[in-house]
């Protein structure tokens, strides 16, 4: 979220990289429409139509391993570094 700044997106073309910035406000321009979409979204979550995978947790002391796993593509989804209690 927030400002995206100035990017030369032409540089991405040589690597077939695309840029997208979705904006739900085009579809939810009133509180009523937003409420309808939110209700449908949470119904889909409850029904299993949309699944959210739990993040992978790493101890903060294992941050280097977490980075290696990311670089080596051994992970999917979100990673969470957990500080020691």
What is the SS-derived class?
Answer: alpha+beta
Number of strands: 2
Helix count from the secondary structure assignment: 2
Q: What proportion of the residues form beta strands (DSSP E)?
A: 5-15%
Termini gap: 30 Å
Number of domains: 2
Largest sheet strand order: 1-2
Q: How large is the radius of gyration? A: 19 Å
Q: Which percent range fits the helix content?
A: 25-40%
Shape field: extended
The largest sheet, given as strand count, sense and whether it forms a barrel, is: 2 strands, parallel
Describe the fold and architecture.
Helices cover 31% and strands 9% of the residues. The chain has 85 residues and is α+β, with helices and mostly antiparallel strands. The protein has two domains: 1-51, no CATH class; 53-85, no CATH class. Strands 1-2 form a two-stranded parallel ribbon. Helix 2 links the parallel strand 1 and strand 2.
List its traits.
single chain; two-stranded parallel sheet; extended
Please give a quick description of this structure.
Helix content is 31%, strand content 9%. The protein contains 2 helices and 2 strands; from the N terminus they run αβαβ.
Layout of secondary structure:
Elements: H1 31-47, E1 56-59, H2 63-71, E2 79-82
Parallel strand pairs: 1-2
């Amino acid at each position: 979220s927030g400002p995206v700044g100035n990017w030369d997106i032409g540089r991405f073309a040589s690597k077939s990289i695309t840029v997208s910035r979705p904006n739900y406000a085009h579809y939810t321009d009133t509180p009523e429409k937003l409420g309808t979409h939110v209700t449908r979204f949470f119904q889909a979550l409850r029904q299993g139509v949309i699944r959210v995978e739990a993040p992978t947790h790493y101890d903060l002391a294992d941050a280097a391993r977490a980075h290696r796993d990311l670089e080596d593509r051994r992970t999917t989804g979100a990673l969470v570094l957990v500080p020691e209690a």
